[in-house]
Amino acid sequence: MDRVAGSPSVAVVGGGASGTLAAVHLLRRARALAMPLEVVLIDQYGRHALGQAYSTTDPHHLLNACVSKMSAIEGDPGHLLRWARRDGLDIDGPDYLPRQVYGRYLREVLSAAEQRPFRVVRRVTGTVSALTGTAGALTGTAGALTGTASALTGTAGAPTGTAGARTGDRGVRVQLSDGGRIEADAAVLALGNRPPAAWPHIVDAANPRYVADPWARDALARICDGAPVLVLGTGLTMVDVAVTVTRAHPKAVVYALSRHALLPRTHPHPAPPAVPVPIPDGPLGVAALLRAVRLAVRDNAGDWHGVVDGLRPQAQQLWARLTPEEQRRFLGGAARYWEVHRHRIPPVTAARIADLRATGRLRVLRGRMLRATGVPEGLCARVEVDGAVRELEVGWLVNATGPGSDIAGDPFLASLIAGGTVRPDRLRLGLDAGSGGAVLDAAGRSDGRVFTLGPMLRGSLYETTAIPEIRAQAAALAPRLIEAITVRPGRSHPEPGSPEHDEPPLTARPVRQARSA
């Protein structure tokens, strides 16, 4: 698969929210520069702009953040609300859209960012198996591009290296598992969250009644037959599974098992204002951080919601202040408590979960699974709950323990690590990257042609999986990518208000009642 002749090209590996936002902001930047550009958006399952999060077909799976916070466009917080109203939805900023609707929004935003024939998106369905330089390895240092940005969301500096210019042999080759290949000037690894890690206590992991990844295609549809379901994990994925399974069958019962039995907290309505949280200067440890948070909650009359919202803008800087040892300490203890308070669910979803628990259709268990074996009608799970061992016979077992934590479990990333093209971060949660998301090779160098964003930066940023953070990263990455592929000389910046500058209008549709919360 050769690139479109004459246009600079960027290959985006991963077609979910991270890849889509990267493509959108890159195209918008190219449009502002009147620059031709081809973006090749590669998605393994053909779910371009939807990815794992927004490919659900259950209308009761809602966004976990309100409309006013979920704009796809950095600097335009009202973009989603305007789109929803033009789309005929009776919705307000504090409401929560179905995730499938948000997926449609991302697809339309991606299409609107195109301006054929000069700026186009080529959507490719395939599995990427390798990433190389067209003239050799991507680990060389000659002519490397570097910037002066201090963080991914900072302002990128000018490129340095061999005259800062793109020469004919400085491309990137993306190899597909079916033998196809894509030539590009730069690449973005927007791989999103990994599937849940393999559960070690499943005797027969190939058992068709064991759902290793609840977000695989049609996975949830399989388990809606009314048989009892055991879900490993009590986080956001468990909530989605419980909502779908219990609505699909009036007698279905869901057991949810985790070590702490902590459920996601509820978004308050109306939302209180964010509360500034003073953090002491100097070396920072987890104990000092928790102490500062507790004091802030106390001073806020015991209300933690505003305190957590006040911490969120500081989260990446606070994470960077922790030593690797302190980061590991946080991951091993406090992280789960942060997650259930930080990643909340809409009030309507929380009410549904509360009703399921009150009627006995959702049973939350604190403990761990010891062993699961197949039986004629499903599986028999041997679990330890509150210190006592018991057996549960269920029709289905679902692994909802959250994204896998070691990127080396991904064959593509493992091959890049083995070849020295990339290296994992020090916690092995994602890729090691320099300023502006430039991926670092085994020697700690950036070739200036391969970048990453979103969950792949979790080890260095931690808070990097939600739309607001990814949106900011995508906006900051766009000029870095333009630098990497070299802005052609002689191009002028169009004035605001010109057709080249303005956003294509969104088509209005008849109003329909579709309030979700």
TrEMBL record:
<feature type="domain" description="FAD-dependent urate hydroxylase HpyO/Asp monooxygenase CreE-like FAD/NAD(P)-binding">
    <location>
        <begin position="11"/>
        <end position="137"/>
    </location>
</feature>
<protein>
    <submittedName>
        <fullName>Uncharacterized NAD(P)/FAD-binding protein YdhS</fullName>
    </submittedName>
</protein>
<dbReference type="InterPro" id="IPR052189">
    <property type="entry name" value="L-asp_N-monooxygenase_NS-form"/>
</dbReference>
<feature type="region of interest" description="Disordered">
    <location>
        <begin position="489"/>
        <end position="517"/>
    </location>
</feature>
<feature type="compositionally biased region" description="Basic and acidic residues">
    <location>
        <begin position="492"/>
        <end position="504"/>
    </location>
</feature>
<dbReference type="InterPro" id="IPR038732">
    <property type="entry name" value="HpyO/CreE_NAD-binding"/>
</dbReference>
<dbReference type="InterPro" id="IPR036188">
    <property type="entry name" value="FAD/NAD-bd_sf"/>
</dbReference>
<dbReference type="Pfam" id="PF13454">
    <property type="entry name" value="NAD_binding_9"/>
</dbReference>
